[in-house]
Specification:
five-stranded mixed sheet, metal-binding, Sulfite Reductase Hemoprotein, domain 1, IspG_bac, 2 domains, TIM Barrel, binds iron/sulfur cluster, isoprene biosynthesis, 376 residues, elongated, 15 strands, eight-stranded parallel sheet, alpha/beta
């Protein structure tokens, strides 16, 4: 992200990390912070899994993770990788053979903890398979599954135990001269996760995968993730994010993007600025925003749209957005284009008209004829 010399209070100074590749997606360094999700289909069902990967990619997922619990899943992974539009991370627990099979199947990254897969020979075999097939590795420390010796040492899961676990796994990879790795230290408790990530960020220059694990359902999990991940991202920590929700993976991607958009770290699609509405509204703000969110899902160009119920805040918000609509009197409101007042439009034709204006503006921005207004 470039620094803003005019509004320095908007700047986020990103931690300097090494860059690795997850397939064709760079992670770390100055690469854009990538958004990930994970499928929840049966991996052996190739068609269902590919459909879910595609749906996540359609809303902007850069990387998708797929569980590989058995040999049949590893076989299916090969086809999934072939049909996926984005790099696939294979999620492996304990079974070193699944790690080797997943690397052979074309996974772009293995999520595996080298300390948990057995003897040094087995670890070496998995690392060799990753190296031979251009696979990176994600070390995934989780507060809920810390190694027994660390639980005995610290008494309970805590940030220090998580950091120590992460560093132990890192050492195993480094001892095997393997450096294409990133790392996460997830916990469902935001305080524990934030403290662990801060400690980890100081202890290593590896790219960091952020996540609040088992965050909850769509509303509660979104809030928890926005607080936990938002706080870390604001501090400059995090190179790739996954929001974990008990919800459709598509929702995870949307929430991940919204968190990054709120911090101005990544932009995709239309950022809608809308008021909560009240008795002053000149049209039904809530219904209009719901309809526009759906009608504008296909726009990928980063741009902004303000939908404001009345003149109390409408003109001011419209100044900073690409397209704006402010409610007025007598069943019509004012349309603003590129921050300037443009023309009146009746409420009953307004949704179609705004969709048209947004599409037109997106085309202008894409053609390089206009710069987007930054309203994030
Ligand atoms: S902008 Fe107008 S309609 Fe919207 S909440 Fe404020 S006063 Fe109410």
């Amino acid at each position: 992200m470039s620094l803003n010399p005019v509004r320095p209070w908007r700047n986020i100074y990103r931690r300097k990390s090494r860059q690795i590749q997850v397939g064709n997606v760079p992670v770390g360094g100055d690469a854009p912070i990538s958004v990930q999700t994970m499928t929840n289909t049966d991996t052996r069902d190739v068609a269902a899994t590919v459909a879910q990967v595609q749906a996540a990619a359609d809303v902007g997922a850069d990387i998708v993770r797929v569980s590989v619990p058995d040999e049949a899943s590893a076989r299916a992974l090969k086809e999934i990788v072939r049909e996926s539009p984005v790099p696939i991370v294979a999620d492996i627990h304990f079974h070193y053979k699944r790690g080797i099979e997943a690397a052979e199947a074309g996974a772009a990254c293995l999520r595996i903890n080298p300390g948990n897969i057995g003897s040094p020979d087995r670890v070496r075999e998995v690392i060799a398979a990753a190296r031979d097939h251009g696979c990176s590795i994600r070390i995934g420390v989780n507060a809920g599954s810390l190694e027994r010796h660390l639980l005995e040492k610290y008494g309970e899961p805590c940030p220090d135990a998580m950091i120590e676990s992460g560093l132990e796994h890192i050492r195993i990879l480094q001892d095997n001269d393997f450096h294409e790795f990133k790392i996460s230290v997830k916990a469902s408790d935001v305080f524990m996760a934030a403290a662990a990530y801060q400690g980890l960020a100081e202890a290593t220059d590896a790219p960091i995968h952020l996540g609040i694990t088992e965050a909850g359902g769509l509303t509660s999990g979104t809030i928890k993730s926005a607080i936990g991940l938002g706080n870390l991202l604001w501090m400059g920590i995090g190179d790739t994010v996954r929001v974990s929700l008990s919800a459709d993976p598509v929702e995870e991607v949307k929430v991940g993007y919204e968190i990054l958009k709120s911090l101005g770290l990544r932009h995709r699609g239309v950022n809608i600025i809308s008021c909560p509405s009240c008795a002053r509204q000149g049209f039904d703000v809530i219904k209009t925003v719901e309809a526009l969110e759906q009608r504008l899902e296909h726009i990928k160009t980063p741009m902004s749209l303000s939908i404001i119920g009345c003149v109390v805040n409408g003109p001011g918000e419209a100044l900073m957005t690409d397209v704006g609509f402010t409610g007025g009197g007598a069943g019509a409101g004012m349309v603003y284009l590129a921050g300037a007042q443009s023309h009146k439009m009746s409420n009953d034709q307004m949704i179609d008209h705004i969709v048209e204006q947004v599409e037109k503006r997106a085309a202008e921005i894409e053609a390089g004829e206009a710069a987007p207004k930054a309203a994030e």
